[in-house]
Amino acid sequence: MVRQEYPHLSKIYWKGIRLALMALVLLAAGCGNRLPESIGANEEIYVLAAPSDWTLLEDAAREIFEKVVYTPQEEKIFYIRVGNIETFERHKHHLRKNILVAAPLDAAHPTAVFLRSLLSPQVHDAVKAGVSSVSWKRDVWARDQILMVATGRNQEEVVDNLRMESDRLYRAVEQARDERVAKLIFQYGERQDVSEQLARSYGWRIRVPFGYRIMEEHPDSGFVVLAREQPNRWLFVYWEDGIPPGRLTPDWCIGKRNEIARRFFGGDRVVATEVKIHQAEFSGKLAVVLQGLWENKALWSGGPFKSYAFVDVDLNRFFWVDVGVFSPNKEKENYLRQVDLMAHTFEWVR
Questions:
Q1: pTM of the predicted structure, to 2 decimals
Q2: Quick one: which of 147, 150, 58, 61 has its CA closest to 103?
Q3: Could you report the per-residue pLDDT of 136-182, keeping only the tens digit for each?
Q4: Model confidence at 33, in pLDDT bands (50, 70, 90)?
Q5: Which among 63, 61, 66 is positioned nearest to 47, based on CA atoms?
Q6: N or C, which end of the chain is more exposed by having fewer CB within 10 Å?
Q7: Residue closest to 182 by CA, chosen among 207, 162, 204
Q8: What are the residue ranges of helices labelled H in the chain?
Q9: What DSSP assignment string belongs to 165-207?
């Protein structure tokens, strides 16, 4: 019926439609482990939208996904790429890691026809009733893939629905990226000998990817740093007893990192005007999170860092877990993400 309604659509397009539907059937049958590997950069999000829709969608899509981090140069966490549904197979869009298909439900153009093929009749009815329809699914046409779909009764509603679900969409695509990066950093194995040495010596453990080593340790001062070169990146753990959770104010935490770096890192300092502070869960504890830039004016160096400060009240012990990168004139966000994911394997083992 659809082919008769839209006879102008190309054969390549219809082949793409058949491919999409076949992949969904295979997924439902439990054949996900036979899917091909996804392709492209982890940071790329391919938006499949008609040119007439993209004019209205562009600002919202870029605001949602192209968040900026300063390292100190400006880097985007995700980059939007615009694709054409009529080259779906030829340009291998079905294999992309991050895909967003966006169109009004009842539009007549090829992207809308394709989008309708992805949604159940129940979803069609919900959209027509004015219910927001922004959803996502993992591993539809390729492994380690996330497919996002945004629709509505008209162009304006598609934009409104995207903005309404922006936080959830961003968290979903970032989680998918983190899972891929975690696989990447451990793809060559891990230093279990180092992890067990840390557990035996200090009572805490971190999964240590191959390539990292203990660069420095001061047991009497409660400090251990692991590092890797090319580019230079580190993870250090500092601990101290007798610090109550109430002391962990933003100003105190900035001062504490400066104190630790002065003692063990040759005078590095937090750039106070370039740090964001919030609270989040870390290793099962509520932590104060600092993310921003460090600098060392004596050495004319600097770069990005991220820290987690928390107190284990059962142990009466304060912990500081810190990651950072030094890589002049190169992009650093991806390397910072790698050591950050490594930091999230921290656990107390005794």
A1: 0.86
A2: 150
A3: 999 999 999 999 999 999 999 999 999 999 999 999 999 999 999 99
A4: low
A5: 61
A6: N
A7: 207
A8: 2-5, 11-28, 51-65, 110-118, 121-128, 155-164, 166-185, 192-202, 250-264, 333-343
A9: THHHHHHHHHHHHHHHHHHHHTTT-B-HHHHHHHHHHHSEE--
Share of the chain above pLDDT 70, in %: 91
Q: What is the DSSP letter of 124?
A: H
Residue whose entry in the numeric block shows the structure tokens 């809308």: 112
Dihedrals phi, psi of 238, to nearest 5 degrees: -125, 140
Say how many domains are in the chain.
Answer: 2
Q: Tens of pLDDT along 55-82?
A: 999 999 999 999 999 999 999 999 999 9
Q: Is there a cis peptide before residue 51, judged by omega within 30 degrees of 0? A: no
Query: Measured between alpha carbons, how far is 88 from 115 in angstroms, rounded to an integer?
Result: 12
Are 195 and 342 a contacting pair, CB within 8 Å?
no
Q: What is the CATH number of the domain that holds 325?
A: 3.40.1000.10
Asked if 172 and 266 sit in the same domain, the reply is no
